[in-house]
Amino acid sequence: MIRSSFALAGFCLIVAGALIGRAAWADVVRPSDPVETTDTYETFGSPLPEGTEVISLGTVLENSTEYLDQPVLIRTRVAQVCQAKGCFFVAQEGAHAARVSFVDYSFFVPSDISGRTVTLAGSLIERELSEAQAAHLNDDVGAEAVRPGTQLEIVATSVRVPRQ
Question: pLDDT by residue (tens digit) across 82-119?
C-alpha cells in the first residue's frame, strides 16, 4: 500500500510538471557529462574547434558532394532527440534534415534539447539504413524522422548546446 502511494505521488508530480510546460526531471536523460561548461552553453564530446567557419546545415546538404567525408562546423536546429539515451538527433533547417550520430558512440547529448540551435563539429557521410534500422531509430525519437535507404548523416565529434 505504501509503495503504491509513493508511486502515485511520483506520477502526480511528473504529470504536474508536464502540465505547467516543463519536462519532468525524471524524463531527461543525460548519460554524458559535458567536456566544457559555461554560463551560456555546454559542450559534449570533444572541445569545439576554434577558428573554423561555421556553415548551415542547408549549405552542407545542398552541396553534399563538396562536403562528403570532410570536416565541417555546422549551426543547426535540433528537431528530435533519441529519448532512450541521447545517442543521436535529427537536425533540421527548413526542408533540410539529417541524422546526427556521435563518433564511435563515444558520447551522447541530453534528451531534452529539441528546439535548440546547436553548433557541431563532424563529418558528412553516406550511410545505408535497412527498414529495421530506420524503424528502430524512429521508435527512439517517437516519430517518422528517418527513412530506410541511402542517407546523408553527420558523425559529430563535438556538440555545443546552449543553456536555457
Answer: 998 999 999 999 999 999 999 999 999 999 999 999 99
CA 69 to chain centre: 20
Q: Contact, 43 vs 159, CB < 8 A?
A: yes
Counting beta carbons within 10 angstroms of the beta carbon of residue 17, is it exposed (0 to 12), middle (13 to 18) or buried (19 or more)? middle
Give the burial string for 76-108 (b: 16+ CB within 10 Å, else e).
bbbbbbbbeebbbbbbbbeebbbbbbbeeeebb
d(CA 76, CA 161): 11
- pTM above threshold 0.85: no
Closest to 91 in 3D by CA, of 53, 120, 129, 112: 120
Nearest to 9 by CA among 28, 23, 26: 26
Residues with Cβ within 8 Å of 109's Cβ and at least 6 positions away in sequence, in order, are 32, 44, 81, 86, 89, 102, 159, 161
Helix boundaries (H) for 20-146: 57-62, 64-67, 131-141
